[in-house]
């Protein structure tokens, strides 16, 4: 396939801690492939622990678990459609 045939990904929603590959590593891989990709991390961990897991402090948006569908939608709107 040609590079232009690839779908565009605008937003990655990932947990911080996952088996085999953490969310920070996944985000690094995908943001190289899709410049401008926005990343929203979800986690039960604190922001400090998220940073310790390898997520760069100035490049992440975190939604703490548990969260409601409305909180998720609100965070997506703020991240993807800032005013």
Shape: globular
On the 0-100 scale, what is the average pLDDT?
84
Rg, nearest Å? 13 Å
Q: Tally the helices: what do you get?
A: 3
Span between N and C termini?
37 Å
Largest sheet: 3 strands, parallel
What share of residues is helical?
Answer: 25-40%
Based on secondary structure, the structural category is: alpha/beta
Order of strands, main sheet, comes to: 1-2-3
Stretches with pLDDT under 50, minimum 5 residues: none
How would you describe this protein?
The protein is 35% helix and 18% strand. The protein has 83 residues and is α/β, with parallel strands linked by helices. The protein has a three-stranded parallel β-sheet, with helices on both faces. The N and C termini lie far apart (37 Å).
List keywords for this structure.
single chain, about 80 residues, 3-stranded parallel beta sheet, about 35% helix, about 20% strand
Give a quick rundown of the structure:
This protein is α/β, with parallel strands linked by helices.
Topology diagram in text:
Elements: E1 11-15, H1 23-33, E2 38-43, H2 47-52, E3 61-64, H3 69-80
Parallel strand pairs: 1-2, 2-3
């Amino acid at each position: 396939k040609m590079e232009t045939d690839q779908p565009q990904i605008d937003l990655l929603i990932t947990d911080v801690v996952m088996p085999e590959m953490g969310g920070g590593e996944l985000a690094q891989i995908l943001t190289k492939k899709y410049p401008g990709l926005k990343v929203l991390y979800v986690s039960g961990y604190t922001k400090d622990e998220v940073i310790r897991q390898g997520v760069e402090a100035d490049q992440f948006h975190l939604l703490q678990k548990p969260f409601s569908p409305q909180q998720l939608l609100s965070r997506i709107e703020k991240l993807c459609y800032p005013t």
